[in-house]
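Researcher: Quick test of sequence recovery. Tokens follow.
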């Protein structure tokens, strides 16, 4: 039988443990390790251990803002070897994030080289990049060597590392933080440094300040990538409870290309959004026809100019519709969920705004107190030494004799202590004093230094004895941080919900020429797309129409104005000018019935633009039979695209013109056969929308009203006939008459000129736009058209090839603060008295 093996028999007591209990204990230990030592920031300095160790290591390496940069591999290696025994990639990722200006509102590290991009491009390898502390990052380490914070042994107990940084800046609030622990997560938003510092100062002045009071200083989150926050409800919830959701949208502008196309340009995107994936998502939506009206998407961003994501629209695309689809289906609109979770005394807590501010102030109180105690101790120690030196210098001969007579240094120190009642540090300083310090000048310096130290000692003691003065020091330092590193807010906060966004604020103010054809096609084209031409030119093609179509109406208005369409049947419709489809000079446009609910028998015969609906402004309408009617613009606020009655017309009559008036103006009614009646607007009382109107002008048989003009002292009337002849006439040529009279001659109509088809009030420095039935247009300076008498036939403005005829005329309004510049390469045509294109005047009737 084999002998018993020599296997040792276990000794001691075996304690049975349920496996679920052991797993539970181990998992809790692991969870607490992740929470405390990895994933959550400390409320005092706003840093996780990895970031704190990196900054501390950079300080130890001397990488301050005025120093040269060092390789990131050196920084990572030093931190990993001394303080953070984890993977080098996780350390480098943390270092890179602290250097990215799109990740941190105020970067703590100044990087040199490729540190990644908004497209989620990876940074270059750590052997290629270099870094040092930024100025704000250096402020995190200020006074670290003055015993302001506790130090603890590192993992190997060979080095000491700080448990927290002094943090002169409120880093947790200005840069935020994010992290996922076990069973909890934090996602804190960055804020503006100036606003946070003001809130800190307000709390120092009044520790009982409320959250509402602090919100008067901190407007809301301020993301490094800008954007627009809509609504304040989520901000208030986050500040009061520590949790809340805010809606962030990218910022954009509307641009018009040289070809006349509109494009949406995003120059800011929501925080944390990957720009490359965002553009890919938009591209997929365009390809799969999830979004209509987009021709292409392009990323024109550069480091120098910032973000520029261009979304070019197709002709006729409605901007609002495209934007709504983009915001609803892409990260151009994102929700940022705020969770203000941080470590307070080693325990995770969800904090409101006041608590975040108060814990930072408490930390600074402790730091400044310990710094002051350190400075006081050092000052007292130095003063103690100086007092001994002063005693020695006052008795220098005796001191020298004692030292010379002593056998060694220890004996000399003992005799000096006994003779002058000095301490050990004082006698050591005396013995080590150089002979050069014995001059009278050096003695004076020592006495002056001692006097200054005594003042400092008194100041430090007073500071430590008075908490109010100590907090004022913190307040002054906070203000200094704000003035040195503060900047303007990047993220705009808009009151109200998303639905209240005014898209018009993002559309450039621009003069547009609006044309309507006989078959109902409407478009708007920037006036800048038309070049000036000389009087008498043939014009350029303004619209390619079908053979049986021709341009009937032309009108010029700003993109931000309301434009009201009034039909021949007396119904009114309105839109904003920028809501009309934009086209090129030669495009046909969109049919008016796709925009307005116009019946088959209705034609647009009058167009009026105005800035707002008001009881102080009126629409004065005129019909072909000379009937006029005045209605307040506020009466039409509900018209929109479905339309409401503007005037009740007699059978066979139709509306031909409408005018915006102020209620007390004089107006001129002009007929097709050359008659003009100047009368006062007061003669026409305001009526309701369903009213019939009153007789405005008495017309001869076969004559019709062609237009209405408002009398203005600094304007003249410009008259245009069917076959391109026109002139300017002074309003003063006409005397005022009562309503219902025939008026005076304004133009001599003949076969060569045709009847009057257009009239407009103009200033000398303005330009006009006229268009023919076949779509040819001409833009020219008003000054090129002569001022003539009432019966003159005028000069040739537009050369007409029959059967074409002039169908429309309007003025181009110039901004007063930006006078129109003459287009490059165009010629002016000054008029001479013997201009051959002028038609001689006939005697007045």
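Model:
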């Amino acid at each position: 039988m084999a002998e018993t093996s020599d296997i040792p028999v276990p000794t001691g007591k075996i304690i049975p443990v349920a496996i679920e209990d052991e797993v539970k204990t181990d998992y809790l230990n692991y969870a607490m390790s992740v929470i405390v030592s990895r994933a959550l920031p400390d409320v005092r300095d706003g840093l996780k251990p990895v970031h704190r160790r990196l900054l501390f290591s950079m300080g130890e390496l001397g990488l301050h803002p005025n120093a040269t940069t060092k390789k990131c591999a050196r920084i990572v290696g030093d931190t990993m070897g001394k303080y953070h025994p984890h993977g080098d990639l996780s350390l480098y990722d943390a270092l890179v994030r602290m250097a990215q200006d799109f990740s941190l509102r105020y970067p703590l590290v100044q990087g040199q080289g490729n540190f990644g991009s908004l497209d989620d491009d990876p940074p270059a390898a750590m052997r290629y990049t270099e870094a040092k502390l930024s100025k704000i990052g250096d402020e995190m380490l200020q006074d670290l060597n003055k015993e302001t914070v506790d130090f603890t042994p590192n993992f190997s107990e060979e080095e000491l590392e700080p448990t927290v940084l002094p943090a002169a800046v409120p880093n947790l609030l200005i840069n935020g933080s994010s992290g996922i622990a076990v069973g909890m997560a934090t996602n804190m938003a960055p804020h503006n440094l100036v606003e946070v510092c003001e809130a800190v100062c307000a709390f120092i002045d009044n520790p009982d300040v409320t959250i509402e009071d602090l919100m008067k200083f901190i407007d809301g989150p301020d993301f490094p990538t800008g954007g627009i926050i809509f609504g304040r409800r989520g901000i208030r919830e986050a500040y009061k409870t520590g949790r809340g959701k805010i809606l962030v949208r990218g910022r954009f502008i509307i641009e018009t290309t040289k070809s006349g196309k509109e494009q949406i340009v995003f120059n800011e995107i929501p925080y944390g959004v990957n720009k490359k994936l965002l553009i890919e998502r938009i591209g997929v939506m365009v390809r799969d026809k999830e979004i209509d009206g987009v021709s292409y998407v392009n990323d024109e961003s550069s480091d120098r100019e910032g973000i520029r994501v261009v979304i070019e629209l197709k002709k006729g695309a409605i901007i609002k519709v495209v934007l709504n689809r983009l915001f609803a289906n892409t990260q151009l609109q994102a929700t940022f969920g705020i969770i203000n979770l941080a470590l307070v005394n080693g325990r995770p807590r969800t904090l409101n705004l006041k608590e975040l501010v108060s814990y930072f102030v408490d930390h600074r109180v402790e730091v400044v107190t310990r710094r002051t105690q350190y400075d006081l101790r050092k000052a007292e120690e130095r003063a103690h030494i100086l007092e001994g030196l002063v005693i020695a210098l006052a008795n220098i001969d005796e001191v020298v004799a004692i030292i010379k007579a002593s056998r060694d240094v220890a004996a000399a120190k003992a005799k000096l202590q006994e003779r002058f009642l000095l301490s050990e540090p004082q006698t050591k300083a005396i013995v080590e004093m150089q002979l050069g310090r014995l001059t009278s000048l050096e003695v004076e310096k020592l006495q002056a230094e001692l006097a200054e130290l005594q003042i400092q000692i008194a100041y430090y003691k007073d500071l430590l004895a008075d908490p109010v003065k100590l907090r004022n020091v913190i307040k002054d330092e906070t203000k200094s941080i704000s003035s040195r590193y503060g900047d303007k807010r990047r993220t705009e906060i808009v009151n109200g919900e998303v639905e209240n966004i005014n898209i018009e604020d993002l559309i450039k103010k621009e003069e547009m020429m609006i044309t309507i054809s006989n078959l109902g096609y409407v478009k708007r084209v920037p006036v800048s797309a038309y070049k000036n031409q000389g009087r008498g030119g043939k014009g350029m093609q303004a619209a390619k129409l079908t053979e049986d179509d021709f341009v009937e109406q032309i009108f010029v208005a700003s993109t931000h104005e309301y434009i009201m369409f009034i039909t021949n049947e007396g119904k009114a419709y309105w839109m904003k000018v920028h809501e009309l489809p934009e086209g090129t000079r030669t495009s046909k446009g969109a049919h008016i019935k796709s925009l307005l609910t116009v019946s088959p028998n209705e034609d647009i015969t009058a167009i009026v633009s105005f800035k707002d609906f008001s009881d102080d402004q009126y629409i004065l309408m005129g019909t072909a039979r000379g009937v006029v009617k005045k209605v307040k613009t506020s009466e039409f606020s509900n018209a929109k695209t479905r339309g409401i009655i503007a005037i009740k017309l007699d059978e066979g009559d139709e509306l031909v013109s409408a005018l915006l008036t102020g209620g007390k103006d004089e107006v001129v009614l002009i007929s097709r056969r050359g008659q003009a009646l100047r009368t006062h607007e007061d003669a026409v009382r305001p009526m309701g929308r369903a009213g019939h109107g009153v007789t405005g002008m008495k017309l001869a048989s076969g004559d019709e009203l062609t237009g209405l003009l408002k009398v203005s002292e600094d304007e003249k009337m410009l008259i245009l006939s069917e076959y391109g002849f026109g002139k300017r006439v002074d309003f003063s040529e006409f005397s005022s008459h009562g309503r219902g009279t025939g008026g005076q001659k304004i133009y001599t109509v003949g076969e060569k000129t045709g009847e009057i088809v257009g009239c407009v009030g103009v200033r000398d420095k303005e330009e006009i736009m006229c268009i023919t039935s076949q779509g040819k247009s001409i833009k020219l300076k008003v000054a090129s058209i002569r001022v003539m008498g009432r019966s003159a036939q005028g000069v040739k403005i537009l050369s007409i090839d029959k059967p074409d005829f002039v169908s429309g005329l309007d003025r181009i309004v110039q901004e007063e603060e930006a006078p129109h510049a003459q287009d490059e390469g165009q010629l002016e045509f000054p008029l001479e008295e013997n201009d051959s294109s002028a038609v001689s005047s006939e005697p007045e009737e």
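The longest strand covers residues 551-558.
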